[in-house]
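1st attempt posting a full record on here, be nice pls
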Amino acid sequence: MVTVVVASLVTLFILQSSFTLNGKQVAERDLGRFSYSVSLPLNGSPQSRTATIGRAVQAATEAGAEGVEAELTSFDLSPSLPGTPRSTYQERDWTAAPYPERFVLVDGRWPSRPGEVAVSNEIARRVPGEQLSRMPLLSGLAKVDVVGIVEDRYATRAGRILAAPGTFDSFDLDVISTRFEALDLRGSLWWSTGGTEKVLAAVESVVPETAAEEVKERTRILGTVRPDFASAYPLGWKIPSLALPLLSALVVFGAAAYRLQRTMSTLRSIGLRRRQVTTAVATTAVVLVISAAIVGGAVGATLGLALRPVLTRFMTAPLAPYPDLVSTLALLLAMSLLGCAVGVVWVHASQQQINNRHAAATRRVSLPSAGSRASARRVAAGLVAGFAIMSQGLPLGDVSAAMTWIATLTIGLFLLTPDLLNLCLRFVSTTHLRGLLAHRHLVENRGRSVVSILVVAAAWGFPLAFATVLATMIQTDEADRVAQAGVDQVRILSEGAQTPPTETVELVARALGPDVDRPVIVSELETSEDHVGVPVLGVGGVAAVDSPDDLERLNGHELTRSQVAVLNNGGLLYRGSAHGDVLELSFASGSPIAQLPAAPVDLDPVWEVSTVGYVLKATATDLDLPVVESDVVFTSVSASSRADVERALDASGLDPYFVKVFHAPDPVRAPPIFYLALVALSLMVVGVSMLVVRAHAASLRRLLGSLVAVGVPASWTRQVVLLELGIITTVAASLAIVIAGPISATALSRLPGFDFTIPWDWLLVIIGSCLVACLAGGWLATTRLRPSDRTAI
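the predicted structure (as tokens):
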């Protein structure tokens, strides 16, 4: 069993480490062949921004920088074609191989003349060949010639447009600056030698907003220690690596103590002293554990090396180098040795208890009860729980701290395992022989039973708690994702302090056709310097609509009669829970406006983000409030009509930024390393559960063999095994469920902004797999019961 645990943990560590890039890879990804880079904040027209980059290059060169190159970057220059991903536009001299190890040319050639680009595999895969050769950008205002296809080894699924120098300047910038006033356009400088101090000072003289913290330096990147997955998420590896080797070693010593108890009288009869026998058995167990740990480390290292290539199918970046296993193997071996130390004390203590019982029986004196030990356990558990309660008021900084807190409280819970076993045994009926045999065997071998429960509970608890944490992280992320428009809506935004662009509104209306419903006009109550809000409701402004029907269309559900009445009577419908029937409107500057009748309403998340409530425009007019038209919203738009709008925008020459078409947010998927950790932990749990249960069931062979020898059916004896294993599994499952439920919930509730959730489907799969493994282990251990087993050691 120690071999399986150590091998599994080493393999898991190797696979998890494959996802953490080292410093050399980060420098390769971020700096390419250069030693330094700095971002340039650009302002003004597109023409002035490109000119600023040229002056920055000259200033850096004059300051002593060598090999200076500039890059023009934009997130708005994506292909204007349906189904294409939002892409990153990067313009620089690609023939000079600025990223020799990151971008790999897979077809064609590198762009060398203005107007030529190479695109990533992701774009080439989604764009038809006839459209790819001459690809439109900026809603058709610009077109580029695709001369090559590249692979981004560090983001294989990202959209990339790698343009030759001068490509952006070859566009009609006068038209572009008119149509795309908010065009994203950024610059950066790259150089090989010359340091940072003088170069940065020279660049700041041209671009004053340049910040020193934006500088990337190769030596700093190479010297930065990056936390790996095991450190960032302790439940995924660190905590199991501390607990499972120790507990698996105790399982070995539990078996040794059981066999010692059975064979002591025989060995004593041939002249061996009790201490000699105990020392020999304990030494044998130590050698066995250490040997198993060493073999497990070798097996895990080999298995991890063999499985690493499989990860490339799930990764969008190259594998990290093979990790240094010295510290990992040392940790696992140290925990195994600690388990040996505890096991040696346990074996000697158990024999001493037997000696004391024999002496007490000879002298006819009574021994102290186990109450003192139970009290000590409860005191220790109380101290751990008290620490947890005292720290309850302290906020946890991150998920790592929450996982550590879960482990701390779990230790206190595990100290009560003997008491939980005693409680469970009270419900075992001893009126029939099966229950009596199972009950007696568990009581006589309480120490070994407790260790089996702890191993199974710990093995189950880690993946269950990790699954709960992972599901909570995903649920929190999903709750924060909001679509850009309401369900089945097309939304046209305002342009700064102006109303939504008339040309854009007319384009969308034409694309939707004559049967489209009248749009909803949403207005903000604001000036250029102030806006209307409700102080008690927090951050956000108050918006206005023409009628209650418009608000119903906006939010996708009907209002109640009382809510309609509040609006029609000059009141406010506000987001969130109830805050009273009358609320005060005021300017953000603090000037009060009026007290309005109010009622809560469920708002669509799209409108809830920045708006605290709605009034009618008539109410705003009566209160003499500033009304600025901010959004034009077409509702109940079919999927095909929304696609027509997007196609019309792609060919319109208008900035698509102002038009938001409803698309359901993509489901949140955690990075593959999280799922790998969960699956690996679950598989390890299945194996460990089967081994522990099988080992425990094997300890019953002598008793069951005696029953078979006197004619008891093997099926009847197997029921005794399953009953005992059922008790152990029940206690272990209860502990694991408490770890994954209340303890995890308490920890995660202390993380700000986290939306706790229980992944019932994941938990049921893990628990079901473990139960099957336990049943299989017990069944396999009792499939060949023979009368000769009565003499088994």
